[in-house]
């Protein structure tokens, strides 16, 4: 649209000529659609967590495993990110659906707890019996490649060179002996620990 000083603006209009065959087909398709919700096929799915009783949830066959994990969280107190679902010796991925579940087969969906790497850290904590984090220490990033002499700047939380656990109770911690250091030194030869130097 251009205007000059003394002229009126020119407006171009495009004639609205709908393509009749395609618009009629669209109207017919719209008439076939209904606003009524589809009947969802639900089924009782049986779940089993080791150490707990089996439980059932009523779920539709098209529900995704990631949604099922959120619903199962209320029953078994396992967070969805730590949950693995196994059905018929096959691990169900988050994007899978429950269409593979056969209620007549009487095989439950097994729920397994998978710990993250921070849950795999063992031990009782620092040498004072307190928590492992704190006092300016940084959390260890990878538990499988620990530092040789402990985390930097944390003298009290230095890990043992023998057992890799925090504190200086080396053999006592390594072998799970429930006695204090002095008791261990007194009974070491009876137990079978002998110095070779």
How would you describe what is shown here?
With 197 residues, the chain is an alpha+beta fold. Among the domains are: 42-113, Phosphatidylinositol 3-kinase Catalytic Subunit, Chain A, domain 1 (Ubiquitin-like (UB roll)), CATH 3.10.20.90; 154-197, no CATH class. The protein contains four helices and five strands. The protein has helices at 20-32, 65-76, 170-174, 181-191, and strands at residues 42-49, 55-60, 83-87, 90-92, 109-113. The longest helix is centred in the N-terminal third of the chain and has 13 residues, at 20-32. The N and C termini lie far apart (100 Å).
Q: Could you describe the largest sheet, including whether it forms a barrel?
A: 5 strands, mixed
- What structural class should be given to the helix and strand makeup? alpha+beta
Which CATH C-level class of the domain at 42-113 is it? Answer: Alpha Beta
Output the CATH homologous superfamily of the domain at 42-113.
Answer: Phosphatidylinositol 3-kinase Catalytic Subunit, Chain A, domain 1
Strand content: 5-15%
Strand order of the largest sheet: 2-1-5-3-4
Helix content range: 10-25%
Poorly predicted parts? 149-156
- Tell me, rounded to a whole number, the average pLDDT: 70
What's the order of the H and E elements?
Answer: HEEHEEEHH
Shape call: elongated
- CATH architecture tag of the domain at 42-113: Roll
What gyration radius follows from the Cα positions, in whole Å?
A: 34 Å
Provide a count of the helices.
Answer: 4
Biased composition (Gly residues): 123-133
Pfam families: ubiquitin
InterPro entries: RIbosomal_uS14_euk_arc, Ribosomal_uS14_sf, Ubiquitin-like_dom, Ubiquitin-like_domsf
GO molecular function, one term: structural constituent of ribosome
């Amino acid at each position: 649209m251009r205007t000059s000083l003394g002229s009126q603006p020119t407006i171009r209009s495009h004639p609205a000529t709908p393509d009749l065959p395609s618009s009629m087909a669209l109207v017919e398709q719209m008439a076939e659609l209904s606003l009524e919700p589809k009947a969802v096929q639900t089924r009782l799915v049986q779940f089993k967590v080791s150490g707990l009783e089996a439980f059932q949830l009523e779920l539709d066959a098209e529900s995704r495993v990631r949604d099922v994990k959120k619903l199962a969280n209320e029953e078994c107190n396992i967070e969805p990110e730590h949950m693995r679902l196994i059905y018929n010796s096959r691990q169900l991925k988050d994007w899978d659906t429950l269409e593979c579940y056969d209620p007549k087969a009487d095989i439950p969906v097994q729920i397994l707890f998978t710990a993250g790497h921070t849950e795999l850290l063992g031990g009782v904590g620092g040498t004072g019996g307190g928590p492992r984090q704190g006092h300016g220490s940084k959390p260890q990033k990878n538990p499988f490649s620990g530092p040789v002499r402990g985390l930097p700047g944390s003298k009290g939380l230095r890990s043992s060179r023998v057992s890799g656990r925090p504190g200086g109770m080396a053999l006592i911690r390594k072998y799970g002996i429930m006695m204090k250091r002095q008791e261990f030194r007194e009974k070491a030869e009876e137990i079978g620990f002998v110095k070779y130097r």
